[in-house]
Amino acid sequence: MKPGMRTLSGGPPPLGLRRLTFRGPGHPVVRGMRPFAAAAMACALAAGGCLFDGGHEAAMGGGSSETTNGVVVGFVANPDGSPAVSARVVLRPRGFLKDTSAALPKTARLSAETATDANGHYGIDSVAPGDYLIEANDRAEHASVRDFSAGDRDTIFLDSILLKPTGVVVGRVNGDLAGNPEAVVQIYGLDRVAKADSATGKFSFPDLPEGSFTLRASVPSSTVEAREIGGVAAYSSDTTFVGDMNIASFEDEDYAAWRYSRRILINTTASGAGVKGAVANFPLLIRLNKGNFDFSLSDGMDVRFSDRNGKRLRYQVERWDAAGQQAEIWIKLDTIHGDSRTDFLTLHYGKAGAPGRSDDRNVFDSADGYGGAWHLTEEAADTAAKGLYKDATPGAQNGDDRVSSPSTEGIIGRGHGFDKGDYIKLQPSYTLRPAHQLVISAWFRGKTTSSLGGTIAGLGDSYGLRVEPDGNILFFTYVGSPWVWQNLRTSGVNVLDSAWHYLAGTYDGNTMRVYVDGVSKGNLAARAPIPYTLGPDFYIGRHGNILSPDKREYDFVGWLDEVVVMNRVRNADWIKLCFESQRLNPTLLEFQAP
Q1: Which positions ≥6 away from 378 have C-beta within 8 Å?
Q2: pTM for the complete prediction?
Q3: pLDDT tens across 40-60, in order?
């Protein structure tokens, strides 16, 4: 047994277990258990026999069995509802990857597993704060998976896990595999790895629980980039084909083989963006059109970018419309200097057969503080598509579709219109629940709100950004009991003029600020941390705490684009550069002659 982790097994379930269950995989956290349940849990922990076997992975909580980390308990049922006995229960962080010879994130080595007892119950203690997947599998082609978030000292009662027939996901690894025949595919959060066939590149996962997953294809080589594909759906008793996963070397590409190039100067002086300070790790937006680019010379797959030192730059193509001669591309730059015209990047294009390298997760990287970034380019015929609106960050917190408006108008490629009652819903991870530092921003266009205003986005009653009926902006964060908020409201602002506006609220633990079109419009002394006790979900286009009837009057009407949440505060230079980079007809960039 690994030190610091135990499973609960044997005997009857903890008293009150079946009463204290919560529907859904969001955040079924119970703080402050009822005394009788807490006592029973303590007895179960003491009598459980410390049956955690741990496998080959390191303990998640570390330390001794007296750790103050959380406890997770639940019940697994067979398809007919009877208790599932001796079903394997595997707990993995959401960012976990099954160990292979390839380099893996540090989170890959955190895990726990156990088996259900004679009553179908399981329990795991010493669960550190974080986001997890828990899978139950009867080893006979029946499984199910749940996701949840754990906080410090939480006792988490997961709703009953009903086993269902497993599904199959198949695909092919393709790309620069010469000398690297050992291509593998992993699934984030699951204890799975599949080896691609050395001749065909085909791979298969034959025993997956129903759900939506992110796959990662890689080879044991430091020069060949891994590739990921998110939103892969596995269905019970069905097969999903994901197509090709193209992997190839990125850093070693020789751009001398690209026929064309174009230098793009970055002007942050007063004649350009007017940004005074340096900004690091910035996602710069460039717009291509018939005035600055010949679309007949590129298919969009071959575009590449390098900085002034020749470094290859990560990028994401949000839209490539050759017929309309329009494209929007995000490029991650290490540094953009303030009050300068010396920075530049080079656009390379014109190489037939070059594989696409568009990579949103390296541009909107969680390591840079991105908690969520939604381009809102998607659209569906109905209003029931789960996970339709894709998150560009590694967390892949995709939003469920509840938007009836068919409008996809946006300021950067496509955005989305919202009619009254429309919204997007997410069950957020810890990256959208920062305690001390927060940035929430979006592009907005509208001309009216309800009598109380329209909420652009927010998480529960914990924080949110709202357009007031008079066109001013309200940014709020929750302080805690007794129902106290910190509200920063602008004055003399009116964004209800049917034009696009860039709105941002920032909070550094001491001061709240609101920016409109890159300009500070107010600040307020504030205090940390932000508690997350009033509503667990994140909404776009609706107030975050819809359980409170009066909050339903904050429904949003208008258009939104590029909704972003960061868990690391950004200064005024960053906010201004976002506006100047993303607005129409920017003066920040100067395309030089080919």
Answers
A1: 388, 389, 390, 401
A2: 0.71
A3: 343 333 333 222 222 223 223
